[in-house]
Amino acid sequence: MRLLSGKRIGQSRPELAYAVLFSFFLHGIILFTALFLYTSATPKTYVPPAYQVKLVGQPAEIPREPSERPAGSVTPPLPKHEEKAAPKKSTIPQRVAKTAPAKGAMPELAQPKHRPINEEVAKPEETAKEQHAGPVGGPSVSGGGAASGVSVATAQPDFKFQYYIDRVRDKIGQNWRPPPDAKDAKARVIFTINRSGWIGEVNLDTGHSSGTFGFKQAAVRAIQSSNPFPPLPDDFAKQSLEFSVDLMEKE
Amino acid sequence: MKRKITIAILILLLANPAVVRSQYYLGVIQGEAKKIPISVLNVYDDAGSPQLREMAIEVLEADLRRSQIFDVMDPKKLDLAYSARTEPPEDVVKRAGTFGLTGVVWASLQRKGTELVLSGKLYDAATGMKMTAKEYFGNNDTVRRMVHTFADEIVTRYTGEKGIARSRIAYVSDKTKYKELYVMDYDGKNALKISADRSICMSPSWSPDGKTLAYVSYRDRNPDLYGLDMDTGKRWKISGHEGLNISPAWSPNGRNLAVALSKDGSAEIYLMDRSGNDLDRLTYGVYDNVSPSWAPNGREIVFTSGRAGTPQLYIMSADGTDVRRVTFEGPYNASPNWSPRGDRIVFVSQVSGLFKIATINPDGSDFRLLTNGPGNDENPMWSPSGRQIVFSSNREGKFNIYIMNADGSDIERMTSNDANYTSPAWSP
Lengths: 251, 428
Known about the structure:
The structure holds two protein chains of two kinds. By secondary structure, chain A is an alpha+beta fold.
C-alpha cells in the first residue's frame, strides 16, 4: 500500500524493521518449499558404500558362472520383445524360458549395471582366481594377430565368450572390402557393441592407422556395414562392450 | 555428507569413462568369413510323436542350411549320436568341438497339458557354453512354425540379423481357372489362397512391416491397384486411374508407393500414399517407365525404361531427378529389385532369346549372369537377408517358384509343378 501511495518503504525505523522481518519470513517459506519439493521428488534408493568402492577398481565385467543358474534356464535380453513381434495370426504363443532371479539382486534402479559387482564383493577370492586364470580361449584372439606381427593392445577385459569374438570377427570379415593397392596399410577401428548387438560409437584410431584416406574409410565402413552384430551373450553382465580391431589388406 | 561424496564419485565416474572403460582387441582381420559348421545333435521325442520329431529335425536342418550362414553337418557321420532324454552334458558338446563343429543344437518335444512344447538349446562347441535356450508352445499343426522360430533365434545368435525362416512368399497361381493371389511359407509349405477376384491378379508387393500387400487386379476390368491388410483381410482400391496401375513398390518407410500409371499416355512412375492420394509424377518421356524398386535408404529408385530404344535399367533420385543408366549389356534388362543391403540389383536380362537372372552393382559395374539353361527366368526378388533370390521360371515346363543363393548356386523349386506359379514377392 505504501508503494501504491508513492512513498518509499523504510522512511521510519519501525517500517524498516517490519520490512526486514517480512523478508526473512518470505525467504524461509521459499527455502522450506524448495526443500520439501526436492525431498519428495528424489527417489530414495539406498546404495551400499562397498558397491561404489568396488566399481572404481573394476576394469572388466565378471561373468556369472553358468552353474549358478538353474539348469535349463537362461536370461534372454532381446527375445522378449522380438517374440512379441511374431505375427498375430500365428497360433504359437511363444514364451521365453523362465529365468530364476539372480541372488542378491540390487534394487531396480541399480540392478542391471551393478549386480555382478555386488557378487564380486561377496566373493573376492573367487574373482581374483578367475582373473588370474584368464578367459576361456584366451585374450590372444584367434585370427592371427600375433602371427601377422601386429602388436596387440594390452587393455583387455576378462571376456570369456570366445564364440562371440569369432562371430564378430566373421561378420567384419564379410563386410571388409579394402580398396586395391593397400599393401602394408592398417587401420585400427574402435567401436562399441550394445547388449542388443547394435553398434554405438565407431572411431578410427588414427595413432595406430596407416594407409590412404580411402583405406581408413573402408575400415570404418566395414564395421558400420556389419551392424547389427549378434546380441551380447546372456551371461555377460554389462550393457555394452568396446572392441578394437585392426584391418589389413586381404590375404 | 557421506551421501554427497558418494554422488560426487558417481558423477566423476560417469563423466570420465576412461576410468571404467575396457576394450577387447579383436586381432587382425584380413580374410573372408566361412560358413559356420553346426550340427543338430538330436530332437528328443518326449511327446510320443516320432513323426513330429523327424519333421522337426528335417525342418531345423533345412532352415539352418537355407540361412546360408551354416554348414550343417550330420551328427551320425561324425559319430556324434546322442539319444538321451536330457540335454547333452558339457563333455558331449566339447567332443563335437573336437570334430571341427562350432555350434551344437539340441531340442526336445514334450507335452504340457494340451500344449506341445519345443525346448531348443544352442551350445558353443569349443567351450561347451550354452548360448541360448528357448521354449516354444503350440500344437501338432504349428510344429513347423515353432522350429522356424527356433532356427531364426539361432541365426540371430550368430549374426545379429533377423532370420528368414518365418518369412513368407506371396505369389500368383492359376490353380483355379483364375490367376489368384497366394501366400506360402518361405520353404513352400502352408500355401494359402488370399484373393477371390475371379480375374487376373499380379505383382504382389509387401509393405516394409509385412502387414499390407499391394497388388494389381483386373477385377473391375482394368489393371487397378489394391491394398490388402494381412491381419484383418480388409481390402481397398489404392489406385484406379484409367489405363495401367501396375508394378507397385513400397518405399522403405512404408508411407509411399511408387507405381507405374498410364493415365497420361505412356506408362510413367508416380509416387502416391497408401490411399492413392498425393500423386507426384517422377518420370517424363514418350517411352514407358515401369517396375520401380527402392534403394534401402529410400533415396533412389531403380526402374526400367525404354528411352534408349530397348528396355534398360536406370536409377533416379526419389524426387525424379539425377537419372542415370545402369545397364548396357544385352538388348533387354528389366524387372529390377534392389538388395536389402543396397550393394546389388537383381534383374531379368535377355540372353540368346531367353530371360535369365542377373545382378549388377548400382554404379553399373560387375554384371553377373546367375542363371542359364532352358526356359525363362522372371520376376527376381531378394530375400530379406539379401542372401537368396526368389524368381519364377518355366525351366521344367510350367512356371514355378524357385529360390537360389545370391551367387546363383543351389537352385531349389518351392512349388509343385502342377500349375503356373509366378510373381513371387518375399515378405520382410
